[in-house]
């Protein structure tokens, strides 16, 4: 492991595997999750969801529901419309029904809400709401949706004459076409990255407490972005922003699922406002899986133009996304397909052209960044699967093909064909290190011998580059809000501190790691720093935690505010030491005159003096705030090698080894970084092997519960072997890059490449995810047939 | 229906509807919110408690079925001697991230090491295979339960 520490363990700065401060409450059952919140007089809400995918609503009968003992009110779209809240804006500039008034457009869509004194009574009432549906044909694929004569799903949307949600393209089409026209070889791959769901174990929920006298709205909510949500609530509901307080308590996993604003939040808030009592709504698991933010669902055709030697000349991509009934991707405004155009990957070639279309279907909306930075997972999968295809087609070893095309260390900062400027990296070293750990040459020899015996062994490689830390204000906003973030640091007279963040942890350990950044920069022990986050009345503004942006943006803000504090403390120390500030040096927690380490004052002495004994003209106190606008994204990367054994009789494949080398720049807390990688690799394994949401031809969601939607247990999950290199980000104050999502982004291609590699000699070039045993068996069967 | 359940060593008597789930009774009746709800279908296991020492998914047991029995929740793991070895080990080995599955995972781990003082990697994985975790990839949960087993064995050996 690379040692990057500069502080002793008792200070606990960067590079120490400090134990998490969050753990104490969580291991004793004293966490404070949304459903744990109970307020005096609180009511409970249950949603009535559409059982069908596409139907006109001819009427809603609420009489029987209203008669249930304990039921206070039944809210329908008609009531919401009377308050101008039947529709709400999405994060991609579309509108979404809060409670359906005209049609239902997907199974699980919100149709009515029952408010009762007890959750059981609310559920009883919801069972009794009668909705008269006039069935319409369901459109369940984007191909059907864009076909001539397809029924218009969004008939309410002004100017909408077809089912096209958006088009977007980037790159130099003419130069790309020219490169393809003159290429020695062209390889192509058509694949579907299936719809998946983040499925955090805690579902979404809200306790809305609107005081009808004061107008104060206190909203406890499972929110990855409480400040942005406050502003959106103000804009949507017309409430004055100073009267809205969003409190995001302990969150039981987010993974992008808790970024959007869902209809249930809006209805519960409106109900609290109208009834004058707090209203709690906690989603059921089925509600979560069938209606809230999914990820992926991209149909992609990618092509590479290559020389005979395997040098890439250009890439072109045609992509069609299934958006569901409303276009509600959570992504930067400028880019209609997120950061999908990072699909040129880790390779040095001059031209690319990417064409994207999205279609409305009768499926749930979403398109969230499920443990990735805005569609980078799809992008990374496409290029790394294409590299495997190219290797197989050209007869070049897949590791060698990558080494021939890598951006070289001396080329950084490197501008890609689609305009990203990668900050730093040493790709060849990373790949070679991972291959060495795997024993690559020996594995290839074993594979050849195994094939002679009729056994199938596959070695899958993926080398990904992620683009995280959105983002620079000149390019990145969501709903117009620039994607900056913030940190406020207050050092008390006794030298203890409070750090307040605009970002919000959901298990990433911010209460520990962000304190370590302050410890590094000031010398205050990390255990003396309380980290506050999630309460908009008590923290500075920020865009929240998703897309691996907390460390790149919020972490940078933290380092910068800590530097301001350290600088003021240095001036105070100079005053105490009767020396010039420019002569004062800091080492860990001590300030001393350069060359005289014996004459020192501590950061704690300086903090006390900040309130008691200041130099002439200096303002009292030791606190400050920083808003950080990052100059660029950060670009973590990794080299993954997977070894699988495939049973030719059944198509069952087992992971023998999974070697993951990650380079996320400087690691603030190595223990936590490794934990993030373990989790991300598991989700990559999940998507490649079992985890997907499908629909039947009528639009019924298959995968509406954890018996049908398979997420891996400990029994299926492979063991992981982790490696690292450390290439700091040159523009981040502490050299760190994001890490929470790298492994989810990079690993699916490694798993699939391994299975395809096992079958490559049979002529198999692709198996779509999830790589289920029957798909493998069919691939073997048709190749052998 | 009046029932009495001994939860973490204390008798709780209450009048409950026959349909009331044990998990709801624990959370809102007894006010112990460390036991969570994650799926409604006995799949995710975050509601796991020990009933007479055996792990049970409390979303699939009625409160009335627990009448007269002993229930242990996460709040009952700690003793006068301090944290249970499994609690200490989950923190030491970074066996939790968001913490939502953690109470259940620790209870299953505690029940396992009661029966098997030195479980193998596979034995731990099999024991917790009814409990999902979306954050950790299970690597450190397995390590934590094994570390807890070792710690419990050595402290038993000392006494």
Descriptors for this entry?
heterodimer, A: 785 residues, alpha+beta, Aldehyde Oxidoreductase, domain 4, Aldehyde Oxidoreductase, domain 3, 3 domains, seven-stranded mixed sheet, five-stranded mixed sheet, globular, B: 159 residues, Ubiquitin-like (UB roll), 5 helices, 14% strand
Radius of gyration of chain B: 15 Å
**Name of the CATH class of the largest domain in chain A:** Alpha Beta
CATH superfamily placement of the largest domain in chain B = Beta-grasp domain
In which range does the helix fraction of chain B lie?
25-40%
3D architecture notes:
Chain A is α+β, with helices and mostly antiparallel strands and 785 residues long. Helix content of chain A is 29%, strand content 25%. The model of chain A has no long low-confidence stretch (mean pLDDT 97). Chain B has 159 residues and is α+β, with helices and mostly antiparallel strands. In chain B, strands 2-1-5-3-4 form a five-stranded mixed sheet, with helices on both faces. In chain B, a hairpin with a 2-residue loop joins strand 3 (48-51) and strand 4. Chain B is globular. The N and C termini of chain B lie far apart (44 Å). Chains A and B meet through helix 1 and helix 17 of A and helix 1, helix 2, helix 3, helix 4 and helix 5 of B.
Layout of helices and strands:
The complex is a heterodimer of chains A (785) and B (159).
Chain A: H1 23-27, E1 43-49, E2 55-61, H2 63-66, E3 71-76, H3 77-82, E4 87-89, E5 95-97, E6 103-104, E7 110-116, H4 119-128, E8 130-135, H5 142-146, E9 164-171, H6 173-181, E10 185-193, E11 205-210, E12 217-221, H7 226-237, E13 244-247, H8 263-275, E14 279-282, H9 285-291, E15 298-306, E16 312-324, E17 336-339, E18 351-360, H10 376-394, H11 398-405, E19 414-415, E20 421-422, H12 427-438, H13 440-452, E21 456-465, E22 477-478, E23 481-482, E24 485-491, E25 497-501, H14 510-522, E26 529-532, H15 550-577, E27 584-587, E28 590-593, E29 596-602, H16 603-612, E30 623-628, E31 637-646, E32 653-663, H17 670-689, E33 694-695, E34 701-702, E35 721-724, H18 742-759, H19 773-784
Parallel strand pairs in A: 1-14, 12-13, 16-18, 25-26, 32-35
Antiparallel strand pairs in A: 1-7, 2-6, 2-8, 3-7, 4-5, 9-18, 10-15, 11-12, 11-14, 15-16, 19-20, 21-31, 22-23, 24-25, 24-30, 27-28, 28-29, 31-32, 33-34
Chain B: E1 2-7, E2 10-15, H1 22-29, E3 48-51, E4 54-57, E5 70-72, H2 85-92, H3 102-115, H4 121-127, H5 139-158
Parallel strand pairs in B: 1-5
Antiparallel strand pairs in B: 1-2, 3-4, 3-5
């Amino acid at each position: 492991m690379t040692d990057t520490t500069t502080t002793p363990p008792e200070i606990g700065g960067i590079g120490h595997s400090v134990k998490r401060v969050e753990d104490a409450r969580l291991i004793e059952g004293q966490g404070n999750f949304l459903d744990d919140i109970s307020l005096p007089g609180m009511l409970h809400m249950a949603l009535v969801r559409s059982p069908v995918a596409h139907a006109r609503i001819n009427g809603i009968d609420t009489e029987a529901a209203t008669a249930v003992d304990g039921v206070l009110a039944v809210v329908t779209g008609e009531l919401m419309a009377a308050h101008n809240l039947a529709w709400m804006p999405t994060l991609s500039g579309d509108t979404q029904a809060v409670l359906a008034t005209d049609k239902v457009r997907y199974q699980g869509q919100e149709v009515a809400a029952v408010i009762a004194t007890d959750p059981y009574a609310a559920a009883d009432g919801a069972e009794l709401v009668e909705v008269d549906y006039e069935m319409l044909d369901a459109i369940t694929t984007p191909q059907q949706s864009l076909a001539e004569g397809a029924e218009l799903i969004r008939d309410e949307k002004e100017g909408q004459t077809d089912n096209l949600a958006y088009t977007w393209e980037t790159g130099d089409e003419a130069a790309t076409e020219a490169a393809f026209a003159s290429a020695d070889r062209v390889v192509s791959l058509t694949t579907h990255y299936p719809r998946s769901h983040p499925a955090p174990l805690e579902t979404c929920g809200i306790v809305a407490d609107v005081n009808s006298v004061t107008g104060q709205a206190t909203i406890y909510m499972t929110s990855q972005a409480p400040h942005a949500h406050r502003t959106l609530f103000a804009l949507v509901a017309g409430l004055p922003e100073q009267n809205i307080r969003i409190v995001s308590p302990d969150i039981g996993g987010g993974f992008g699922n808790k970024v959007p604003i869902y209809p249930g939040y809006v209805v519960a808030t409106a109900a609290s406002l109208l009834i004058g009592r707090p209203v709690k709504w906690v989603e059921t698991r089925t509600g979560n899986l069938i209606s809230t933010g999914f990820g992926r669902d991209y149909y992609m055709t990618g092509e590479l133009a290559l020389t005979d030697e395997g040098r890439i000349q250009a890439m072109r991509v045609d992509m069609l996304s299934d958006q569901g009934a409303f276009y509600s991707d959570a992504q930067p405004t400028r880019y209609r397909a997120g950061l999908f155009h990072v699909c040129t990957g880790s390779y040095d070639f001059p031209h690319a052209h990417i064409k994207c279309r999205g279609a409305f279907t009768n499926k749930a909306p979403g398109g969230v960044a499920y443990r990735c930075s805005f569609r980078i997972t799809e992008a990374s999968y496409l290029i790394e699967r294409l590299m495997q295809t190219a290797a197989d087609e050209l007869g070049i070893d897949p590791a060698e093909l990558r080494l021939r095309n890598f951006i070289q260390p001396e080329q950084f900062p490197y501008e890609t064909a689609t305009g990203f400027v990668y900050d730093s990296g040493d790709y060849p070293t990373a790949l070679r290190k991972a291959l060495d750990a795997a024993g690559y040459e020996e594995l290839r020899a074993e594979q050849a011998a195994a094939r002679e015996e009729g056994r199938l062994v596959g070695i899958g490689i993926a080398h990904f580059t992620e683009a995280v830390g959105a983002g620079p204000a000149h390019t990145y906003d969501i709903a117009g809000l620039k994607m900056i973030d913030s940190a406020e640091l207050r050092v008390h007279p006794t030298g203890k501190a409070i750090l307040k963040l605009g970002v919000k942890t959901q298990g990433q350990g911010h209460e520990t790691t962000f304190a370590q950044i302050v410890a590094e920069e000031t010398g205050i022990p990390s255990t003396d720093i309380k980290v506050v986050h999630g309460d908009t009345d008590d923290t500075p503004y920020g865009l929240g935690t998703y897309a691996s942006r907390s460390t790149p943006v919020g972490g940078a803000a933290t380092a910068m505010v800590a530097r301001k504090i350290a600088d003021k403390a240095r001036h105070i120390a100079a005053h105490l030491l009767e020396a010039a500030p420019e002569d004062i040096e800091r080492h860990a927690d001590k300030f001393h005159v350069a060359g005289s380490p014996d004459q020192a004052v501590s950061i704690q002495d300086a903090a006390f003096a900040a309130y008691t004994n200041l130099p002439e003209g200096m303002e009292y106190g030791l606190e400050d705030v920083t808003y950080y606008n990052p100059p660029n994204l950060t670009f973590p990367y990794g080299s993954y090698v997977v070894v699988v054994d495939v049973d030719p009789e059944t198509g069952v494949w087992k992971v023998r080894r999974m070697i993951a080398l990650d380079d996320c720049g400087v690691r603030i807390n190595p223990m936590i970084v490794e934990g993030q990688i373990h989790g991300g690799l598991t989700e990559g394994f999940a998507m490649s092997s079992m985890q997907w949401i499908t629909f039947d031809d009528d639009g019924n969601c298959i995968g509406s519960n954890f018996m049908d939607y398979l997420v891996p247990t400990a029994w299926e999950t492979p063991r992981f072997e982790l490696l690292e290199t450390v290439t700091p980000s040159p523009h981040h104050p502490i050299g760190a890059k994001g890490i929470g999502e790298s492994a989810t982004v990079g690993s699916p291609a490694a798993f699939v490449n391994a299975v395809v590699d096992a079958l490559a000699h049979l002529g198999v070039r692709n198996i779509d995810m999830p790589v289920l045993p029957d798909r493998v068996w069919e691939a073997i069967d048709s190749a052998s047939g | 229906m009046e029932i009495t359940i001994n939860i973490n060593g204390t008798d709780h008597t209450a009048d409950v509807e026959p349909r009331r789930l044990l998990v709801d009774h624990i959370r809102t009746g007894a006010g112990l919110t460390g036991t969570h709800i994650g799926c409604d279908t006995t799949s995710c296991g975050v509601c796991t408690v020990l009933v007479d020492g055996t792990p049970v998914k409390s979303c699939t047991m009625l409160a009335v079925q627990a009448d007269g029995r002993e229930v242990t929740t996460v709040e009952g793991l700690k003793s006068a001697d301090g944290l249970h070895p499994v609690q200490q080990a989950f923190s030491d080995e970074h066996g939790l991230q968001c913490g939502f599955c953690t109470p259940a995972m620790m209870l299953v781990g505690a029940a396992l090491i009661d029966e098997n003082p030195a479980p193998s990697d596979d034995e731990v994985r099999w024991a917790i295979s009814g409990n999902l975790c979306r954050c950790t990839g299970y690597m450190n949960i397995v390590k934590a339960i094994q570390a807890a087993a070792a710690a419990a064995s050595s402290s038993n050996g000392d006494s």
